[in-house]
Structures
1.
Amino acid sequence: MCTMVLKLRNLYKWENNLEPWEEPESADLLDWIEDKEHYWATMVDEPFRPLDVKQQDIPPFDLKEINNSLESEKLIYGAGYGRSMKSVFFLAELLEQRMVEGCPVAVLGKEKAKEMAGNIAMVQDGLIIIRKESLRFFLWDQIQELRSSCRSSLRYALHSYGLLTDEKLDQERFKSKLDSIVEEEMNFYIYHEVGEMLQTSFDTETLQKIIGRFPGSLIEFLCRSVKDILADCHPQGLLSYIIREKRASSLGFYAGFLDGLRKQLFPEMSDAWQLFLDSKEWSHIEQARSACWEKNLLIGTTIKNICEQFDIVSDDQILNQLKQEITVPLGL
C-alpha cells in the first residue's frame, strides 16, 4: 500500500509539474487520488483502443509501427506488461542514442504521457530505454527513505557526492546536485539492462511464461529477482562495469539498494562490501560477483527446466517442484 501511495503521489507531481522534493497538500493529493480511482473504475473493463498516430489507427502494442511514425518527432513510445501483468504505456522525448557493449540505448527526457509504475529502464524490441524523469524521482525517493538507516554503503555513496553534513543528508545540496547525480549514475541502469539483454541462460520468454501462469505470486517475484541478479552479475553487466571503472559511488548505491529477494540471492555482497570498505580492494567485489553469477545460473537453469514441463503437468505440480528445488533451499 505504501508503494502504491508513493507511485500515485509521484504521478500527481508529474501531472502538476512538481519537482521530486515539492510535496502537495495532503487534502489536494487525497482528492486527486479519489478522482483518479473513480475515473479508472469507469474504464477498467474496456478493451484497449487503437492509437490515432498521424491519422492512422495503430494497435497500442504495435511498437514498431508507432515508433516509426514518431521518428521525425523525436519521440519514443513504450508499451507492454510489467509486474503482475499490469499494462505499461508512456510517450517521451528522445534526448540521445548510443551503443553500450554492442547494445543500442535510447535516453528519454520529458514525458508527454506516462503510467503509474514509472519504470526507470527496460528493454523494448531490442532497444534499452532509460527514462531520466523516472530516475530523478526514484533517486530522490530512495535516498529519502534510506537516509536514516545505518547502511554504510549508502552513507559511502552520499559522501562520494558531498551530500552529508555532520553525517546528515544536506537536502539543499542534494536538490542542487540531483541532475548531475542522475547523469553520473545513468550507466548504473544502462548496464543492468545490458546484462539483461546479454544473459540468455534464464531468458525473457521463460520469465513471461511464469508471470502469465503465476502473476503476483512469490514465484513471479523470485524469478524476476533471479533474472535481475543474473543481469547485474553478467560478465558484461552492471557489477563488471562498476568494478572495471572503479565506480565506488555506484557500488555504494548498489549495496545500499540491494534488498528483499535480491539480497537473499546475493548474500556474498554483504561480506564483500565490508572487505572493500576495509581494504579498497576491488578483487573482493569481483569474487562476490563471480560466485553469485555461478550460483544463480544454476538456479535459473533449474527454474527453466521445471517450466519446460508447463504443457504436461499441473500448476500444483509445478509449484511443488519449484518449492522443493528452489524456494525451500533458499529458505523462503
2.
Amino acid sequence: MYTHSKLIFYIGGAAILIGIVMSACGIANPSTTPATVPVPLPQQVPIPPAQSIGQIVMGGTAEGAGDFEIYKINADGTGLVNLTNNPARDMLPAWSPDKSRIAFTSDRDGKTQIYLMNADGSGVIQLTNDDWDKSILRFSPYLSWSPDEKWIAFTAIVTDKPDIFIVKPDGSDLTNLTNNPADDVRFYWSPDGKRILFHSSRDGTPQIYVMNTDGSAVRRLTNNQGVDVPAGWSPDGKQILFYSNRDGNWEIYIMNADGSAQINLSNNSAFDNDPAFSPDGKQIAFRSNRDGHWQLYVMNRNGSSQRNISNGDADDNWFWWSPDGTQIYVASTLGQDPQNLKWNAAIINVDGSGQKPFAFGSNINWRP
C-alpha cells in the first residue's frame, strides 16, 4: 500500500476538524493529526481495481516547490493534471454538482479568497474580497456547493471565531448565515437544498443544529452533556449521521432529521468517529481504533455487520466513497513520530479486497 515519489501532497481534513473543535471545547482528541505534512505520490500511479470510475480532484504541492496546486486525476490512476499552475497556495477544491466547475481557495491576491474555475482550469474568477478581514478555515467539508449549484458555502473566521458563509458562483450576495458569538462550523446541505446542518457551541456544549439556507429558523437537534458532531444527511434526507462522546467514548449515532430517535449504531468500547453514508444510503463507513490502529470500517445502515476493510498497520485518517459505492479512497499514516510520518493512500473495494496504492492528496472530491 505504501509508495514513494517526487510529487507530495499535504493533509487537511476531517481529522483536523475534530482536533480543532475538541481542543476548543476542552475535549481530548482521539487521534492527533498534524496540519501540514509532506506525502509521497507515486511517480507512476498503479492502476486501482478495474471498476474505478469518475475523477478525483485534490490539493497538493510538488516536492521542493513552495506553492500548493489543484490537481485532477482519473479514478483509474491515469491523467494527473495540474489545473492551477500558480505560484500562490491554491487549495480546498470542490466540484460543482454537475462537475463543470471547481471552487477553491487561493492567496494569489494577498489573502486567502474563494475562487472559481472551469473543470479544465480555465476561466478563473475571484468570488470574495477579503476587505472584511476574514480568513478561510480548512474545516471539513471545506467548500460545499448547494445541490442546485446556486450557492457555495464555507467557514471563515470573523473577530476570532468561525461562522458559516454562503456566496453565489458569480461572487454576489456574500452572506454570514450564523453571525453568532459562538463557534459555528462543520456544515452540510440537506439533499433537497432547503436546510443546512451545522455544529455550534452557542448553548454551551457543542451540539448539532439545523437552519434554513438563509440562516433563519435555527433549531437545536441534540441536547446532552456530551459533544455531538454532525457528519451529514442520509441521501434520502430522512436521517442524520453524527458521532458523540455522551456515553464516555466516541460512538457513531443516527437520528431522524427532526432530532428524534437518536440511536447508537457502533456500540463499542473503542473510539469510533467520522461516519459517512454510502451514495445509496445502505452502508456507513467510519473510523475506529478498536483493532489497535485507526482503521476504516463499514457497517450496514442499522449498525449491523461491522467489519474492518483496511486491515493494516497504518492509521487511516480520512476517506471518500466512490460515486457508485463500490470503493473507498482512504488516506493513511504510518509511524508514531508526528514529524516523520509516512502518508499514503489507496482505493479499496468496499468488501476490503483489491487494495491498490493511489495518488495521495488533501481535500479529496470524487465525482462520476
3.
Amino acid sequence: MKRMLTQTLAAVALTSPALPAVADSEPAKVAQPAASAPDKSGRVAVNGVNYYYEIRGKGEPLLLLHGGLGSIDMFEPVLPAFAQERQVIAVDLQGHGRTELGDRKFSLEAMGDDMQGILQKLGYSQVDVLGYSLGGGVGFQLAVQHPKVVRRLVLLSAGYASEGFFADIRAQQGQINADAMAFMKDTPMYQSYVKVAPKPDDFPKLLGAIGDFMRKDYDYSADVPKLTMPVMLVFGDGDMYRPEHVIKFYQSLGGGLKDAGWMRENLSQNRLAILPNATHYDILYSPGLVSTTLPFLNGYPK
C-alpha cells in the first residue's frame, strides 16, 4: 500500500526528479556540478504569501519555477550551468520549500500573479522563464496574465489541459489527499520538505491542497494563443503527457503546421523539443536539457 501511494505521488506531474527513486535511470547517472550558495536570498511578501527566493550568477535574468512537492533544490542538476551564463532567480512556490502554504486557495492563476509581484519588488521589468511541471503551469499563467514581463518562455513537461495526461496518471492524481501523510514519513519527498519548511507540520495540508487542485479538470487552450512571446515546449519521450497532446500544444502555438521553407520563411518563432531517454521524473537530469533550452533562451538562432 505504501509503495503504491508513493508511486501515485510520483505520478502527479508534480514530483522532484532529484529524488533517489529515479537514481537508477540512465540520465540521472550523469555527473553534475554542485550548486553554489546563492549570491542573494531572502523573502518577498506578495498577495498574502511570503515567498522565499534565491539569486545566482550574472547576465540576463532567468526565472526558474520548480515542480510540485519540490523546491528550488529540484534544479540542482541544471542550476550551475544556467548560472554560468544568466542571472538565475529561483522561487519556492506557495506551500513548497521555504515558502509557507498559508490559507489562500492554491491556484496557478494566483501564483502567476504572485510571480509578477515578486519580480517587480526585486526590480525586474522583464525576464525569461523556465517552469517545470507545476512551475510550468505557473509560468504559463505569468506569461498569459503579464505578457510584457516574459521575454521568452520554456515550458518543461507541462501541458495546457488535464486531458493531456495518460488516463491512468489522471486517475492516480485524484487519489491524493491529506490522509496520504500516514504513508509519507519515510519517503524522500517528506524528508526533503521537513528539512527546509518553515512549518513542517503543514505537509498534510499541502497534500490536501494539491489533491484538491489536481482533482479539478482544467483546459487553458483558449489562453495558448495569448502566448505572444517565443515559447519552447520540452517533453521527455517517456513523459506522462500523451504525444497527441504535445503535438496539439505545439500546433496551437503555430508550429508544425507546414514545412518551414528553404529559407525558414514559414518557421514559427516557437520550438518543440522531445528529449530522448527522459521521463517526467528525471528530465532535469537529461544531458541535453541545458544545451537545448539555453540557446533558445539566449535568442539563438535569430
